[in-house]
Structures are given as C-alpha cells and as structure tokens.
C-alpha cells in the first residue's frame, strides 16, 4: 500500500490551514463498501497510524470529502487547488469538507478541524460556491471536480 502526502496551504499572515492526505482507509475486511464521490470522512491519527472513518457530512468531525475515486494518484483532477490523496486498492482524491460560515484551524491529528470563529487565527469560509465564485481580497480555493470554490479569510482580518 502506498501513501501520498499533500498539503493544502493558506498563506495570509501566520494563519495556515493544512490538510494532510496521509490516511489509511479503515476497512473491516475485503467486503467493505468502496468509497464514493460525495462521501465524507473523519480523518485523525498520525502518518504512522492514520484513521479514516466514514462520517455524515454535517458532523463536526467530517473534515474531508471524497471528490473522485481513481486507479492512480496521477489521475486526480488538476487545474485547481491540490487534492489530498489516499492510495490503496483504489486512490481517493480528497478535498476539505468546508462549510460556508464555519471557521477552521490547523490540527495536528486531523489536518483541519472546525473551530470557534472567535479565534483571530481561525480561517472562515466566507463563501462556498459550486462553480467559479469571485472571492475578492481573501484566499480562493478552487477544485475542478467536483466544481467548487471556497472563499476564505482569516477571522482577524474580518474584524
């Protein structure tokens, strides 16, 4: 099993949101259902002992979403923000499960996690749009598949 790590960066001042894609897909045996695009998961653990658990997309711990299932990491879509990947029997192209109006902070185990919007270092999802939103002065994360744009701003910059 080969694992690939990618990071998704956010660079306004000292705020950094990192989503690491070095996660094992926890299965209960050979008959486990194959992940499907749109499915969310909770990622936690370390690179040595990662944990991938399917989660409801509305759950606070659901920090990634399966964008595409492919045969090899090189088949993940290109032309936007980098996808995090998990490569096992199949490769999962993962995007962050960011929710408009919610705030996030870097987390050593989960990559990113929902956070209190009262923290000046948190990053807020100002807009989440299927397609090509214009984000203005904040950071833009665009993924071609599924077509989604996230407009991000450091909470301290919004005050």
Q: What's the order of the H and E elements?
A: EEEEEEEEEEH
Rg over C-alpha atoms, rounded to the nearest angstrom: 15 Å
| Alpha-beta classification | mainly beta
Helix content: under 10%
* Count of distinct structural domains: 1
The number of helical elements comes to: 1
Organism: Saccharothrix espanaensis (strain ATCC 51144 / DSM 44229 / JCM 9112 / NBRC 15066 / NRRL 15764)
Protein name: Putative secreted protein
Task: Give the helix/strand layout.
Elements: E1 40-45, E2 50-55, E3 64-70, E4 84-87, E5 91-96, E6 103-107, E7 111-115, E8 123-129, E9 139-144, E10 147-154, H1 155-158
Protein name: Putative secreted protein
Organism: Saccharothrix espanaensis (strain ATCC 51144 / DSM 44229 / JCM 9112 / NBRC 15066 / NRRL 15764)
Summarize this, please?
This is Putative secreted protein. This protein is mostly beta strands.
Report on this model:
This is Putative secreted protein. The longest helix is centred in the last third of the chain and has 4 residues, at 155-158. The protein has 159 residues and is mainly beta. It has 1 helix and 10 strands; from the N terminus they run ββββββββββα. Residues 1-29 have low confidence and may be disordered. The protein is 3% helix and 38% strand. The protein has one domain. A hairpin with a 2-residue loop joins β9 (139-144) and β10 (147-154). The strands form 2 sheets. Strands 2-1-3-5-4 form a 5-stranded antiparallel β-sheet, with no helix packed on it.
């Amino acid at each position: 099993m080969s694992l690939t790590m990618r990071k998704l960066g956010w660079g306004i001042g000292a705020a950094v949101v990192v989503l690491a894609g070095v996660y094992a897909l926890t299965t209960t045996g050979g008959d486990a259902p194959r992940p499907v695009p749109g499915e969310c998961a909770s990622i936690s653990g370390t690179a040595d002992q990662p944990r991938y658990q399917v989660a409801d997309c509305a759950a606070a711990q659901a920090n990634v979403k399966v964008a595409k299932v492919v045969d090899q990491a090189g088949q993940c879509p290109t032309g936007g923000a980098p996808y995090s990947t998990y490569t096992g029997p199949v490769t999962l192209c993962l995007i962050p499960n960011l929710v408009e109006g919610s705030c996030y902070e870097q987390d050593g185990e989960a990559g990113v996690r929902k956070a209190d919007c009262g923290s000046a270092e948190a990053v807020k999802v100002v807009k989440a749009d299927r397609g090509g939103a214009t984000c203005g002065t904040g950071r833009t994360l665009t993924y071609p598949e599924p077509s989604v744009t996230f407009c991000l701003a450091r909470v301290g910059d919004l005050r």
